[in-house]
Design goal:
The chain has nine helices and 20 strands. By secondary structure, the protein is α/β, with parallel strands linked by helices. The protein starts with a strand and ends in a 5-residue tail after the last strand.
């Protein structure tokens, strides 16, 4: 018949079924087991009963102390379960702690010391029943084995009344928070960090002056001499016709040369306009209400970082108009009237640029829970080209009636778009 000894650790008593409900014989593979309670266990249980980390631990420690105290009154040998007896070791371990690499100030070392003494006295396989990984580590080089009960014996986690009250309070607090607006501002249709693209140059996609001169050449006017009739006589009628043709071609050439000058000016203005476009980009923002109540009188402010300014869309230079081609029958074009933007009634999400260009602002009368509003696109102008290739952030501020203003930052990167060859502008 094989015998084994099992020293019980507080870890098992507090987190597993009661020791008389665990099949120790099957776990050890022995024919008979002696389950041993050592002074370190009773000392730790008494301490946990008074100062445990939770009401559940205190309760379990108290029940374990009561159970073991009653069993102490029974005469030896104390039957714990079939093939298993319970014994109490009433003396502290007497082995030399330092020579066995143990410390009297560490609870685990007292269990190890007691187990070493039991093994030396009985000459039988000895275990410490525990799920403590630190204790398992200390037993690796010792003649004592760790015995971890299966998870089937582990007690279900209990929630004590204090923890229940705390969780309930947290739920109530969460309800209160969810009953308030929760506003967020982000880039519209952009996940992650926004990249603003500033091309180094946009090549014009219009004809050059040379191409225009080739398509609209000057009329040849010859030497300007009046040609005689085939009969060698000049009549007043032929003289008049030749003179009229010569004068018409000269006037037409004047119009063509004026067209050349106008187109040359147009091409210069077009290049300057493209250069201006290289310095700006359009940005769309979106505000959302993720809370459980509506937000009213919402104000959104976005400040531009150093090296950039906001500009009104009306301040973007218009694309230069190509001059009319030379024609004998010039038609005066009537341009449509441009209505000033500020004459329109203000709407939720309209974006306005402050006078100094340092920030933009928008308003929303009411933003309901679960809803969002896409703001009108804003135009950012790069005033310092050294910013290209760097990262920065917009400073944001959201104000609303129902809470304190929310300040934040939206990071973005400024990247070079290189040269756009004859791009579509």
């Amino acid at each position: 018949m094989t015998e084994s000894n099992i020293v019980i650790d507080a870890n098992v008593v507090l987190h597993y079924q009661r020791i008389d409900q665990i099949d120790w014989v099957s776990l050890t593979g022995a024919n008979h087991c002696s389950v041993i309670v050592v002074p370190a266990l009773m000392r730790e249980l008494e301490r946990k009963k008074a100062t445990g980390s939770s009401a559940v631990i205190k309760k379990r420690a108290g029940k374990a102390v009561d159970f073991l105290a009653k069993r102490m009154d029974e005469p030896d040998p104390i039957a714990l379960r079939p093939g298993c007896t319970l014994s109490f070791r009433d003396n502290e371990p007497l082995i030399d702690f330092p020579s066995n690499r143990l410390s009297v100030s560490v609870d685990d070392d007292h269990y190890i010391a007691s187990a070493l003494e039991v093994a030396q006295e009985s000459r039988q396989p000895t275990f410490i029943a525990s799920a403590d990984s630190g204790l398992k580590l200390k037993l690796r080089a010792r003649p004592i084995s760790i015995l971890v009960p299966p998870e089937a014996y582990r007690l279900q986690d209990e929630v004590d009344s204090e923890t229940k009250e705390l969780r309930e309070a947290k739920r109530e607090l969460e309800k209160i928070k969810n009953a308030r607006p929760r506003l967020t501002l982000q880039f519209n249709d952009c996940e992650g960090k926004l990249e603003l693209l500033f091309p180094e140059k946009i090549a014009p996609n219009i004809r050059t002056l040379e191409e225009v001169m080739r398509d609209h050449p000057l009329n040849e006017v010859g030497t300007g001499e009046i040609t005689a009739s085939p009969l060698g006589k000049t009549t007043d009628l032929s003289l008049l016709g030749q003179a009229t043709s010569l004068a018409w071609r000269e006037r037409e050439n004047e119009r063509i040369r004026a067209y050349y000058d106008a187109y040359d000016q147009y091409f210069s203005e077009y290049e300057a306009w493209l250069s201006e476009l290289c310095q700006i980009d359009w940005i769309a923002f979106r505000i959302e209400n993720l809370g459980g109540a509506a937000a009213t009188n919402v104000g959104i402010t976005v400040a531009a970082p150093e090296g950039t300014v906001w500009i009104d869309e009306d301040d973007i230079p218009d694309r230069p108009k190509e001059p009319d081609k030379p024609s004998a029958f010039a038609i005066t074009r009537i341009e449509p009237l441009a209505y000033p933007r500020n004459l329109n009634p203000p709407r939720d999400g309209d974006v306005y640029v402050r006078e100094d260009g340092r920030s933009i602002f928008a308003k929303c009368g009411q933003l309901n829970p679960g809803c969002g509003l896409s703001l009108e696109k804003a135009v950012l102008r790069l005033s310092d080209s050294a910013m290209i290739g760097t990262s920065s952030s917009f400073r944001t501020r959201i104000s609303f009636t129902e809470g304190e203003p929310i300040e934040g930052q939206l990071p973005f990167a400024m990247v070079s778009g290189g040269v756009i060859e004859r791009g579509d502008t």
